[in-house]
Write a structure and sequence with these properties.
Elements: E1 6-7, E2 9-15, H1 21-31, E3 39-45, E4 50-56, H2 59-62, H3 65-69, E5 75-81, E6 96-100, E7 103-113, H4 116-122, H5 141-152, H6 163-171, E8 177-184, E9 189-193, E10 202-206, E11 211-214, H7 217-222, E12 225-230, E13 235-240, E14 243-249, E15 257-258, H8 260-265, E16 271-272, E17 275-276, H9 277-291, E18 298-301, H10 307-317, E19 325-327, H11 340-350, E20 351-353, H12 355-358, E21 362-367, H13 374-385, E22 390-395, E23 408-409, H14 423-430, E24 434-437, H15 440-447, E25 454-455, H16 457-460, H17 477-484, H18 488-491
Parallel strand pairs: 15-25, 18-21, 21-22, 22-24
Antiparallel strand pairs: 1-23, 2-5, 2-11, 3-4, 3-5, 6-7, 7-8, 8-9, 9-13, 10-11, 10-12, 13-14, 16-17, 19-20
Length: about 500
């Protein structure tokens, strides 16, 4: 369990005539619920009209059979949100809907743009310059992209209906940062990924005919789709009645998948770079046991994300594996909670120690990462109170020292525990008997993929894309406030 990293979102798209695409999108989002729990939404096209239903909450809270039955069509996209740019509110739930005349499109975005300020300024959308007919109805960078698409839309209607494709070919090269998009108009499904491929996006083929786009391969399994391939970094793919019709390389790829997809974000049953995440996490634990051995009576995970690494540590060390904490499975990931107060309450609700397994024992406690450290400290306190004789904390990733600007929401660098503290100082703060982090070379080796194909900015400070001078999370918030305030002319 890692309560302090927020991932931006999960996206899903399906093109499947004569199949219940809304239900398939629901299942896909259900499989991707771990990637965002603030809001959920589905957009469906029947060839003439795009209908969007979205709301705050989990997928199962937003949708029921009645709502899904109202979404009939042959194309659908879905979105689970965790906010990175823009506040957590209904207006900022996705998919984002945009319109140009009588034509419409919908967009779902996983990631975060780094040039939001420049894009907003180019559109005259910074405070004091709100255009009266802007299509932006939220304060996210995703809605900003929708506005860019609307303005790049061809003036003349095309006989082949490729307006959205043409607009995207103009807009995508202007975007910087991390993004995996699923988009749709009335007759096609489109996927696109930034040139570094910070966030995954895969293509699947439905057994009964049809195509799927998803943030993770595990979502394909739930809807009965077979993995075809990844959308490549810097690529746009277009799916319509003829199948996977276009594969457009709009930028040269420089793969830099977020390393934390292997460490924490992705489901254990997802495959990345051809390797199963669960197996990679077990190898992380094995490598950690060799790097930082310790005499102990039991290896235990901080559930659930620490489980595979703890299994690997136990296997490599020969120390018995056991459970020391019970997780309440009806409480969501605590990192999703938008405030520290709520995160703290979530930890107390989520985990409870098993004193009979803990009392008098020397414990190796394994977790995937430590970000702010407040939750880890609470866990250690619970184990001490349950009678642990010793606590040796092992982390299956290096110290998290730098904020992410491409799609994780970790706040300012000053909030990161390891930003200015040594491992020894962190050990003392957590009140553990020993502390060790997995070295980065060992971590990348455990994934089975090329070490150069990952973004490690949060661990090393080496940012592949230039980062903004200031935090852009709330950059567009004044736009909504100004639009919601009547102008003197409107008031007359």
């Amino acid at each position: 369990m890692q309560p302090s990293i927020g991932h931006s979102c999960g996206v899903f798209g399906v093109y499947a005539p004569n199949q219940p695409v809304a239900n398939l999108a629901y299942l896909g989002l259900f499989a991707l619920q771990h990637r965002g729990q603030e809001s959920a939404g589905i957009a469906v096209s029947d060839g003439q009209t795009i209908t969007v239903i979205k709301d705050m909450g989990l997928v199962s809270q937003v949708f029921d059979e009645r709502k899904l039955a109202s979404l009939s069509g042959h194309i659908a996209i879905g979105h689970n949100r965790y906010s990175t740019t823009g506040s957590s509110s209904w207006q900022n739930a996705q998919p984002v809907y945009g319109s140009v005349g009588d034509e419409g499109f919908a967009l779902g975005h996983n990631g975060n743009l780094t040039n939001t300020a420049d894009l907003a300024a180019s559109l005259g959308m910074l405070p004091g310059f709100v255009p009266p007919k802007s299509a932006v109805d939220s304060t996210t960078d995703s809605a900003l992209v929708a506005e860019l698409i609307s303005r790049a839309w061809p003036v003349e209607r095309r006989s082949d209906g490729r307006e959205l494709e043409i607009a995207l070919e103009a807009v995508l090269p202007t975007l910087e940062g991390g993004f995996s998009f699923v988009l749709m108009d009335d007759s096609r499904l489109i996927g696109a990924r930034d040139p570094h491929g910070f966030w995954p996006l895969v293509i699947g083929r439905l057994e009964g005919g049809g195509w799927v786009l998803a943030s993770e391969s595990a979502a394909l399994d739930l809807v009965g789709a077979h993995y075809v391939r990844d959308v490549q970094p810097g690529e746009m793919v277009v799916i319509d009645a003829t199948g996977l019709r276009r594969e457009v390389r709009w930028a040269e790829p420089e793969p830099k998948l977020c390393l934390f997809e292997f460490v924490y974000f992705s489901r254990p049953d997802t495959r990345l770079y051809g390797h199963t995440v669960h197996t990679a996490r077990q190898r992380m634990g094995e490598s950690l046991a060799k790097q930082a051995p310790v005499d102990a009576d039991m290896v235990m995970p901080v559930p659930e994300s620490g489980i595979p690494a703890a299994q690997g540590f136990a296997r490599a060390s020969g120390i018995p594996y056991g459970d020391g904490l019970v997780k309440n499975r009806y409480v969501g990931r605590t990192f999703i909670q938008p405030s520290q107060k709520m995160r703290g309450a979530g930890v107390r609700m989520k985990l409870n120690p098993l004193p009979e397994n803990i009392e008098g024992k020397r414990l190796v406690v394994v977790d995937d990462s430590i970000v702010r450290g407040t939750t880890t400290r609470q866990v250690v306190k619970m184990l001490r109170e349950a009678g642990a004789a010793e606590i040796h904390f092992r982390v299956s990733s290096p110290p998290y020292r730098w904020p992410c600007f491409y799609g994780m929401d970790t706040g300012q660098r000053s909030a990161l525990l390891a930003a200015d503290l040594s491992v020894g100082e962190i050990r003392d703060y957590l009140d553990v008997d020993s502390l060790a982090y997995l070295e980065i070379d060992r971590l990348t080796a455990a994934t089975g993929a090329d070490a150069e194909s990952f973004c490690t900015a949060c661990l090393t400070g080496d940012y592949p894309v230039a980062i903004p001078d200031a935090d852009a999370k709330m950059l567009l918030e004044p736009i909504r406030r100004e639009r919601d305030t009547p102008s003197p002319i409107d008031a007359q």
